[in-house]
Amino acid sequence: MRIAIEAHGLVKGFGEGSARITALRGVDLTAGFGEMVYIVGPSGSGKTTLLSVLSGVLRPDDGKVLVEGIDIWGLDADALASLRLQKIGFVFQDFHLFPRLTSAENAAIPLILRRTDWDAAVAEGVKNLEIVGLRNRADLPPVKLSGGEQQRVAIARAIAGRPEILILDEPTASLDGDTGRNVVGFVKEHLLNEDRCIIVVTHDSRIYDFASRILKMEDGRLTGTLEAKS
Amino acid sequence: MRGILLLAFKLLVNDKAKFTALLVGIIFAVFLMVSMTAMFTGVLYRASATVVNIGASMWVMDPSVDTVQNTIGLPAYVLDAVRSMDGVKYAVPLYSGGALVKLPTGRYQTVTVIGLDDTSLFGRPELEQGRIEDIYQENGFFVVRDAEFGKFDNPKLGAEFELNDHRGVVVGIARVASSGLYGIPTLYTTYYRALQYIPSPRFTMAYVLVEPKSPADVERIKRQVAKLGYVAVTKDEFMQKTADFLIHKTGFGINLMIMTLMSFVVGLSISGQTFYTFILENLEKFGALKAIGAKNRELVAMILFQAGFTALVGYGLGVGLCTALIGFAKLHLPDYASRISFLVLGLAFGMVLVIAGVSSYFGVRRVLRIEPFDIFRG
User: Is 3.40.50.300 the CATH number for A3-16+29-226?
Assistant: First the structure.
């Protein structure tokens, strides 16, 4: 298995002195292409912090993150931003879609940031909406879509430009049980392939059966691996 | 970068409520600034109406004269002295003073009387009706058709009036480049008729009008006049002198400046606050863009573009609105004293840039401070 992302000895804390909270206490992790890796744990276990460090959004106090062999925390800010843009797609917990843009325009944002021509980017966004089954919603703004549909627009945005790594942060948090399972199931079936690694942060046990591997996190450490049913 | 700016454009204009509020703030500020300063410019121009209308290249006067209306009589020898100076092509006397005329209806009306050099009639106005030589007719006067023409009962050629027990006859209807500021009709006649008809102090000559032989002689003439104890100024200098008096020696300039500043502050407040609110409402989205891979300089470019675009559109609409209203006012008041000069437009543009700059500064600061991690944290 080709390694997509690996982390060694990650340490991260917040605050100073007696108020300091250590969110990561020496985390080691690998995720390979073709894997859908879950990071699960109770609230406050450090899942979001780990996700942020792995994706180049939050600098660790110590440790290394290698994305396809590149030490991302050795890069300057612009290079790191470019790496995220090229290699990582994000599906945020609250989607963070632009209400003043259409679904197609939202889906095109990573391509626009890559300096793709606007019309070409939006056309690609429409294609990605087709992949997630929302072609007929391309001209609607997100406010006119259901929660599940907004989630899929967020997924369409995340896969714009075909990133190798997809990060899903609590993908079912804003959705009901069936919708959440449908979305995650769709991601596994249509977006996971040998050239892509998907990392999911969740505490929703209803979707555990879609995982390739489930890493359990507690108090800033990866404490073990849960059995994955897939 | 075009796509990123187009993204910024859509984020801005698709939020119709915010965009409208932003525009209204800037349009309001620009409208007030331009109309205030245009009115001030118009008033200053009108205050120098006599200088503009006479058109002499140089004016000799008593050093105490502040504005063209506040004349102090010059002794007769000054005219001879100036005529004999090096560099003077010719010099003529000018009378300027106020008088009270009695109209045929029995009503009294204050007027300004300009007495032109009898020989040359230098400084004479263009005539709409009548002939220029008719001013030499007995009791001949020209009446200027400007905003105050109606106060002279809209006279026709041949109309009569009374001035200090003297009979006056309208032999010409004149038009001038600029109406006066003080709202009274203007009459033109010959210099010596003016002296005859109007009670005068000891020295009657208000100004000596000078035409230099060449522009190079202007400074030399000034020095020679200064030796006499008087002052010679060019047309532009005299207009500036009049403007300076109004700006610095009356409350007019200060009050206009205060009003203009208040307009600027109001515009800055409305636009600045609305733009900052716009940024705050979209802060998470900017954070999401950062997380996805937008660089700081790209986000800064977006914000600057949004502020700049709004400022330019608001400036254009504000100037357009002001121009339209001034045009409308001039339809009903042809001599409405308002002039939009390039200086006025430039001043308003500068202030709009400041508004855009300040608005975007606080927005940029806020956006640069946001951490993408905050998006994950929720």
Answer: yes
